[in-house]
Amino acid sequence: MSELSAIAIGHQQPRQAMLVELGRLELRDYTPPRPGPGELLIEVRCALSCGTDLKTFRRGHPIWKLPTPFGHEFSGVVVEAGAGVKSFKAGDEVMAAPTAPCGICFYCQHGQENLCALAMDKMVMGAYADLLLLPAHVVARNTFIKPVGLPFEEAALLEPLSCVIHAQEMAHPQKSESVLIIGGGAFGLMHMLGLKASGVREVAVLGRGAQRLKWAAEMGADEVIDARGDGAIAEVARLNGGFGPDLVIECTGQVQGWEDALARVRRGGRVVFFGGCPSGTKLSVDTRRMHYDNLTLIAPFHSRPRDVRRAFELLAARTAGFGAIVNARRSLSELAEVFAMLERGEVLKCAVIP
């Protein structure tokens, strides 16, 4: 490890969290490589918990094979820049997405950079750590100087917000519309904040748990509906003057949530299947309703560089209130407690501060 790296973490041995098997994390000593050409070594100032992390912790992930370094939402300070890096230098405060496309493959050439194999195959993992190496393709396309005054924990929202922006761009919400969000977790409430900031007329959140519904109301949802209540179906049907929502965004990642989304949208409406379901699950669709009710079904995945850029701009403006999503803070040594809190539904996103 370079002398500069040791200085960056106060002469402590660097640490990195590993998911060694389902439900078990280990905090291990970690000596990162020196940055190569185009790369950056950063000191992590904040890593955020994520719903995808929780799903991976519980049931694994089709892409990330165990054991794996863990965590992928982060912000930090440049410790060392590799050869050829012109836009960043040691001491710069930065924010980045953990992926970037190649720019030359079939999907990139068709404006679908979110489907580029490079993006997921070489995703940056290991943000629950003291130090993190950013590869050249991420540095070149999806890394930004953090604006002065933007807290590190808000800057770390760059990746999840870019996914929200991609989904909403595909859905084309209009200011005159009524939108129902199914799921009151972090992604559901980020969707809600983004829609409200863009001026959408009515945004309702259908969720479970008094605490999550309370958070949704406090952050500005026009209506919160308890999915467990006897009158939930009727409450949703009353939206939009009794026609039901124009747009439904599903954020639970459960097949039941996908089915609920199809059932709740109005005739002529749109459904966004944002939450990814477990591998091997299937959705049953009433083809008659889909055809004769003229439904549009949208299944967005990940994000593109233009979505990341837009997320950066929104976070820099600090007008939408996305920082409220981060509602707990723990140290890196308390990472096991972070996942226990997520399991209990006590937190939306936790800032893990090394």
For this entry, give a set of tags.
single chain; 354 residues; alpha/beta; Rossmann fold; seven-stranded mixed β-sheet; six-stranded parallel β-sheet; 16 strands; 32% helix; disordered N terminus
Please explain how this structure is put together.
Helix content is 32%, strand content 23%. With 354 residues, it is α/β, with parallel strands linked by helices. It has two domains: 3-156 and 321-353, Medium-chain alcohol dehydrogenases, catalytic domain (Quinone Oxidoreductase, Chain A, domain 1, Alpha-Beta Complex); 164-298, Rossmann fold (3-Layer(aba) Sandwich), CATH 3.40.50. Strands 3, 5, 6, 7, 8, 15 and 16 form a seven-stranded mixed β-sheet that branches. Strands 11-10-9-12-13-14 form a six-stranded parallel β-sheet, with helices on both faces. It has a three-stranded antiparallel β-sheet with strand order 2-1-4, with no helix packed on it. A hairpin with a 2-residue loop joins β1 and β2. α7 packs across α8. The longest helix is centred in the middle third of the chain and has 14 residues, at 158-171.
